[in-house]
Design goal:
With about 500 residues, the chain is mostly helical. The protein contains 22 helices and 8 strands. The chain has helices at about 5-15, 45, 70-85, 95-100, 105-110, 115-125, 125-140, 145-160, 170-180, 185-195, 200-210, 230-250, 255-315, 325-335, 340-345, 345-360, 365-380, 385-395, 395-415, 445-470, 475-485, 505-510, and strands spanning about 20-25, 30-35, 55-60, 60-65, 220, 220-225, 425, 440. The strands form 3 sheets. Strands 1-2-4-3 form a 4-stranded antiparallel β-sheet, with helices on both faces. A two-stranded antiparallel sheet has the order 5-6. It is globular and about 75 Å long.
Length: about 500
């Protein structure tokens, strides 16, 4: 495993130094770096860096795939380096030369899809996309706890149904429900933090939503209920608290700011949350739950087909993060999200497509090495390495992967239509890692059957579609030519991979 601090320094050098970095943020697998001057970025050096799975440039935005866990440490290291040495210069000519020497290494395959990524990113990198990233940043830090509590709840549910160790199940029930019962507080804290406020004040406003005393409040003739509005109300309240606090800090004298600012913030933002936001967010939350349930219960296989087929393009552009508040709302409202198991089929279709490429071009050591390194993460639900390292650059395999995901989503949607809804009690997991987190209207058994059937279909369809027509003639010729040369010898671990994707292939992938 690469050293996070060393990797952060290498990334800093490749992107043009701290002076060229305008902003840094990360999700669970990707580091997003906004640069002032794209011309100062040494993209080949960045792509050749050990530990970087893929690096894509889209104008001033860099998407650097590092994988879960490592991305958090590297982001922290990069921020520390920026603070300590804001005037560090960009990497020297040596880095560029080294990158050029690597030529068409396996990492270069990811660069073949850069133009496709840049086009898609440019279309979605306006205010809407920035807003989506900001909102998703409120929920991303909560995902580890959601996974942990969801998994404990799943184990507890199995033990309860089997009537095993009854003395332990209440203990596990408390462990799994404690965080979820205060989810609105944590959402309020993160919302205030992301919008420039004090987290604890956002948490104070979010806590109003789950306070028991809410049941004694009547607004517009309607008695409120604890939890009404859920995470959406808490998010809106936290954001409002941040704006109120920032305004009050500008107009309040320093000598009384410590008392006046937090008091007015909680009083104003809390009153608006209690009097307006809880009711409005409650209506929106119910509408989201009703719409998602109706869509799969009535649209069934067709709805699942469409959702499963479109998920990989959403991941490619980063727009899938906009679904995080919806998933969280559904879990908060019904106990599980019916959308996540359907959308997870996109990653399963991609796994089938990549296995087909491995089988078809198994003599191409470079391609096999790239797939072999990315597949374990794919099976655990981290699809970016396969997207940016294999399917998207090759063009057609990205389409056949979407086809596999569509058929898998159709199967899961069919189970929903038949009355056996398939849901996930936590977010952040996918593919095989989602199996312990399943639940639904007919219990875990039916949910597992529906999800497992969808996975198998997505694997098989993605595999078959890619094997039959997933590679264009030009790409096939390039890959087979490499396989027949000494550099394509499987025994040569550093054999270069040189695949030329035609404009037609790129257009097909973009569609």
């Amino acid at each position: 495993m690469p050293d996070a601090q060393q990797l952060a320094q290498q990334i800093l050098d490749s992107v043009g130094g701290s002076a060229n970095i305008a902003d840094v943020e990360n999700c669970m697998t990707r580091l997003r770096v906004e640069v002032s001057s794209p011309a100062s970025v040494d993209l080949p050096a960045l792509q050749a860096t050990d530990g970087v799975m893929a690096a894509i440039a889209a104008g001033s935005n860099l998407q650097i795939v590092l994988g879960p866990g490592l991305v958090d440490r590297v982001a922290d290291g990069l921020e520390a380096l920026r603070a300590a040495a804001p005037s560090v210069a960009a990497g020297g000519p040596g880095a560029s030369s080294a990158a050029g020497a690597s030529g068409s290494s396996p990492e270069e395959l990811a660069a073949r899809g850069a133009s496709i990524k840049a086009t898609a990113r440019a279309r979605s990198d306006g205010r809407t996309m920035r807003a989506i990233r900001k909102i998703s940043a409120i929920f991303i830090p909560l995902i580890p706890a959601l996974i942990a509590c969801g998994l404990i709840a799943g184990i507890n549910g199995i033990l309860t149904n089997l009537e095993w160790v009854p003395g332990v199940t209440p203990f596990l029930g408390v462990l799994s429900s404690g965080f979820l019962s205060l989810l609105a507080v944590f959402v309020g804290m993160n919302a205030a933090k992301e919008f420039g406020g004090t987290p604890i004040l956002g948490g104070a406003v979010g806590g109003i939503i789950v306070a028991a005393g809410v049941a004694n409040v009547t607004v517009f003739g309607e008695t409120l209920a604890p939890g009404q509005g859920g995470v959406l109300g808490a998010m809106a309240g936290g954001i409002l608290a941040a704006y109120v606090e920032r305004f009050m800090r500008r107009v309040t004298p320093d000598v009384i700011a410590l008392i006046v600012v937090p008091t007015v913030t909680v009083l104003v933002a809390g009153s608006i949350t209690l009097g307006i936001l809880m009711s409005v967010a409650g209506v929106v939350s119910v509408a989201i739950g009703t719409a998602a349930t109706w869509l799969l219960a009535n649209g069934g296989a067709f709805a699942g087909f469409v959702l499963g087929g479109l998920f990989l393009p959403l991941v490619m552009t980063g727009m899938h993060q906009g679904l995080i508040p919806i998933h969280t709302t559904l879990i908060d409202q019904t106990g599980w999200t019916v959308l996540l198991p359907v959308l997870a089929m996109g990653g399963a279709g991609q796994i089938g497509a990549c296995i087909a490429l491995w089988v078809r071009f198994r003599s191409n050591a470079s391609l096999v090495r790239t797939i072999r390194g990315a597949l374990p993460a794919g099976f655990l639900g981290v699809g970016e390495p396969l997207i940016y390292g294999v399917t998207l650059p090759l063009g057609r395999p990205f389409i056949t992967a979407c086809i596999g995901g569509a058929f898998g989503g159709g199967v899961v949607g069919l189970f929903d239509q038949l009355g056996h809804s398939v849901g996930a009690i936590a977010i952040g997991a996918s593919d095989l890692s989602l199996i312990p987190l399943l639940n639904g209207s007919s219990g875990y058994g039916w949910a597992l059957l529906g999800y497992g059937s969808g996975l198998i279909v997505a694997y098989v369809v993605g595999f078959v579609a890619t094997l039959l027509f997933g590679v264009s003639d030009s790409v096939r010729a390039d890959l087979e030519a490499q396989s027949s040369t000494p550099s394509g010898d499987p025994a040569a671990p550093d054999a270069p991979l040189d695949v030329q994707v035609t404009p037609a292939d790129s257009v097909g992938a973009a569609r």
